[in-house]
């Protein structure tokens, strides 16, 4: 147990805090100080790590500040205007648009969630689709350069991470992880802006229920605490400290499946501190996902155990797009079912 400090926004409360590995982008690029080994171990043991973004181009600190500014402007728009960009009507694949408060299954009153979100598709941001296919509030255009710079910086970081993981897995050149995560081609990557509503002391429950992310890697940025991860080693929920200038990167279902679950798909949630009210909380994340048609089966690596062929033949093999559709169905209150609720926390 660790006493969380007041300047972390947690207050003088005794809380279990996750001890995560820190990976340096510059060190990883040059594989200094055994950085690739640390990365591999973090993916296997925790499924989550801090990434020091220093050295990325463009300067990530300035860009992150601009995305925070966009986020506040988006969520200050009238609900009526935001609902003109309803994600469930605008984007069947949930890549573009607004999700209102309470639409997802959650732990608050009436099984509702406690957050709003706005999704911005990578393909629209970097111009892989025409403007008419990327409907958005006008304020987004004021920050388009920042969104493009942010996307470019994350794509560079993601490519470096996948390249080093592929080397650690001893994958053949034509079968690397980066080959199925092509930032300059059409993929279902997106940036999601998130606003968690204030929650009184009398209202207990996770604003964002326990889940794993459906894609490959998630790059989260936040200045406020509230994120918890389930520690497989310690068998309990642990709080994740926000760190300025760092991304909190977690492994999702698709990457875990692609390596035969050698990497842990990190279960997490956003919750309130014991005995405290929750103030409004802002965060945003870049979700890296494989090409839609990617089969969710393990790559060929000498590090992965060979499965019995008969048992392997019985396994259901689906594409990344099919998995995403199943996952989204379990996120929405209107399509959630108890029998399939396991989908929320991993494949």
Overview of this protein structure:
- This protein has 347 residues and is of the alpha+beta class.
- Helices cover 28% and strands 19% of the residues.
- The chain is built from eleven helices and 14 strands.
- It has helices at residues 25-29, 35-45, 60-75, 79-82, 87-90, 122-125, 138-142, 144-168, 253-258, 309-314, 320-331; strands at 2-3, 14-15, 22-24, 48-52, 97-99, 115-121, 190-196, 208-211, 217-222, 227-231, 236-239, 246-251, 268-270, 281-288.
- It has an eight-stranded mixed β-sheet.
- A hairpin with a 4-residue loop joins strand 10 and strand 11 (236-239).
- Helix 2 packs across helix 8.
- The protein is globular.
- The model is unreliable at 1-10 (pLDDT under 50).
Question: In summary, what is this structure?
Answer:
The chain has 347 residues and is an alpha+beta fold. It contains 11 helices and 14 strands. Helices cover 28% and strands 19% of the residues.
Secondary-structure blueprint of this entry?
Blueprint: E1 2-3, E2 14-15, E3 22-24, H1 25-29, H2 35-45, E4 48-52, H3 60-75, H4 79-82, H5 87-90, E5 97-99, E6 115-121, H6 122-125, H7 138-142, H8 144-168, E7 190-196, E8 208-211, E9 217-222, E10 227-231, E11 236-239, E12 246-251, H9 253-258, E13 268-270, E14 281-288, H10 309-314, H11 320-331
Parallel strand pairs: 3-4
Antiparallel strand pairs: 1-2, 4-12, 5-6, 6-7, 7-14, 8-13, 9-12, 9-14, 10-11, 10-13
Helix pairs in contact: 2-8, 3-8
